[in-house]
């Protein structure tokens, strides 16, 4: 089975079979990054542009490392030192870069739909590395991969996503991904941080955290975006922590064998305490490692039907 699409823009449009294909492929690449020689010639001769218009640590480094592990040529775009500062449009930026004969673009942008827009004005394969509050497909995939590796199955698990759902592209991607693979998904947060009519996505909605935690297997904690505090979504960080912060006492409400996840960056002491973040039940660092494998899988599968020079197989 191949990934029968030219781009990776979201999880909403992927089928369960396509998601499973990416997860299965990532398992092979996880074996690659765990071995002594971590580089394979799979994408030799392919040029990938990392087009990041927003700050990023984990995602950007993860994509760059994935590209290098696959032997691709990598170009990193910096908004601060580009012609965007002179007023150049996104369309002109990508068309000028593509004129240098690039093959793939990884884009992060503050505007929802930016990745889709690129597919309309360039011929390169496009991977969405986060567009506004819309979607972050590779983060959703690495979260799915991490949970499947631990439990061997996702169907039937109860997943709770906590925090700023309203502004979170991670929450939206995880809702679609976990539900497509058969998990029961719930969300919890202050009513001011819950999207309008979010229940239409097929999730259970809670504003009482202690009620929401009962019987949960996977706890997906989101960063509280402190830069939005002035907008009045919640009175103070201290009050948020009191009502929605995850500490060891609250973990007692979860099912035996529960898992703690966080996409990062973390606000330690706000949405999650230090002891919970560093506990044996936390897979936060595993998520980061698995992110490289997932992004290697996405890059590989999107180029799998293209003529790639010297490609001798995924694990050659």
Kindly describe this structure.
The protein has 316 residues and is of the alpha/beta class. It has two domains: 16-136 and 288-304, Rossmann fold (3-Layer(aba) Sandwich), CATH 3.40.50.1370; 137-284, 3-Layer(aba) Sandwich (Rossmann fold), CATH 3.40.50. Helix content is 35%, strand content 14%. It contains ten helices and nine strands. The strands form two sheets. Strands 7-6-5-8-9 form a five-stranded parallel beta sheet. A four-stranded parallel beta sheet has the order 2-1-3-4, with helices on both faces. The chain starts with 15 loop residues before the first helix and ends in a 13-residue tail after the last helix.
Descriptive terms for the model:
316 residues; alpha/beta; Rossmann fold; 2 domains; five-stranded parallel sheet; four-stranded parallel sheet; 10 helices; 9 strands; globular
Low-confidence stretches: 308-313
Q: Which superfamily, in CATH terms, is the homologous superfamily of the largest domain?
A: Aspartate/ornithine carbamoyltransferase
What is the approximate shape? Answer: globular
Please give the CATH class of the largest domain: Alpha Beta
How are the strands ordered across the major sheet? 7-6-5-8-9
First-residue to last-residue Cα separation: 19 Å
Mean pLDDT across all amino acids: 91
CATH architecture level-2 label of the largest domain:
3-Layer(aba) Sandwich
How many strands appear in the DSSP assignment? 9
The count of helical stretches stands at 10
CATH topology of the largest domain: Rossmann fold
Helix fraction by DSSP (H/I, runs of at least 4):
25-40%
Question: What is the helix/strand order?
Answer: HEHEHEHEHEHEEHEHEHH
Strand content: 5-15%
């Amino acid at each position: 089975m191949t990934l029968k699409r030219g781009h990776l823009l979201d999880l909403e449009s992927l089928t369960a079979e396509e998601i499973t294909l990416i997860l299965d492929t990532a398992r092979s690449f996880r074996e690659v990054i765990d071995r002594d020689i971590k580089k394979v010639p799979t994408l030799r001769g392919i040029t990938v542009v990392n087009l990041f218009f927003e700050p990023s640590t984990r995602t950007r480094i993860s994509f760059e490392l994935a590209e290098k592990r696959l032997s691709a040529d990598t170009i990193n775009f910096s908004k601060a030192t580009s012609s965007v500062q002179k007023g150049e449009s996104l369309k002109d930026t990508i068309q000028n870069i593509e004129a240098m004969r690039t093959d793939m673009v990884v884009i992060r942008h503050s505007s929802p739909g930016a990745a889709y827009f690129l597919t309309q004005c360039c011929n390169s394969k496009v991977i969405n590395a986060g567009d506004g509050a819309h979607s972050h497909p590779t983060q959703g995939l690495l979260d799915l991969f991490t949970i499947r590796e631990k439990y061997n199955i996702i169907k039937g698990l109860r997943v709770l996503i906590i925090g700023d759902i309203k502004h979170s592209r991670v929450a939206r991607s995880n809702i679609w991904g976990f539900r497509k693979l058969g998990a029961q998904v719930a969300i919890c947060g202050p009513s001011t941080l819950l999207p309008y009519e979010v229940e239409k996505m097929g999730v259970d909605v809670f504003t009482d955290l202690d009620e929401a935690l009962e019987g949960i297997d996977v706890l997906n904690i989101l960063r509280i975006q402190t830069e939005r505090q002035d907008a009045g979504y919640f009175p103070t960080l201290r009050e948020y922590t009191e009502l929605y912060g995850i500490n060891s006492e609250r973990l007692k409400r979860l099912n035996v064998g529960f898992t703690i996840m966080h996409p990062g960056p973390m606000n330690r002491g706000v949405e999650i305490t230090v002891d919970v973040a560093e506990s044996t039940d936390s897979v936060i660092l595993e998520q980061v490692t698995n992110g490289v494998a997932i992004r290697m899988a996405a890059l590989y599968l999107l180029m799998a039907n293209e003529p790639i020079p010297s490609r001798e197989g995924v694990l050659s």
